[in-house]
Amino acid sequence: MPQIGWFEILIIVSIAIIVVGPKDIPFVLKKIGSWIGSIKKYVQNVQNEVSSLDEEIINNKDNKKEDIEKTKEGITNEK
């Protein structure tokens, strides 16, 4: 994974000031911050849903095992 050093950050900030302008930099940074916050919330929601599905699958698997064991016991007791 590439690493970004201070010199690269300085170049990016310089280009941003030239392209956007010094007056609009705070507005642009605020907008970027809100986008990052929205992306983080979305990723967190996806992670939570995947975790809940994983737990549900594990619970269903355990329940199926219990049902199979009860069925085996019932068949054994009938003989």
What does this structure look like?
This protein is mainly α and 79 residues long. The N and C termini lie far apart (64 Å). The chain is 87% helix and 0% strand. It has one domain (23-78). It has helices spanning 6-20, 25-78. It is rod-shaped, with a radius of gyration of 28 Å. It is built from two helices and no strands. The longest helix has 54 residues, at 25-78.
Short description:
With 79 residues, the protein is mainly α.
Helical fraction: over 70%
Uncertain residue ranges: none
Q: What characteristic shape results from the CA principal axes? A: rod-shaped
The separation of the N and C termini measures 64 Å
Tell me the β content. Answer: under 5%
Largest sheet: none
Radius of gyration, in Å, reads: 28 Å
Structural topology:
Elements: H1 6-20, H2 25-78
Main traits of this protein?
79 residues; mainly alpha; 2 helices; 87% helix; rod-shaped
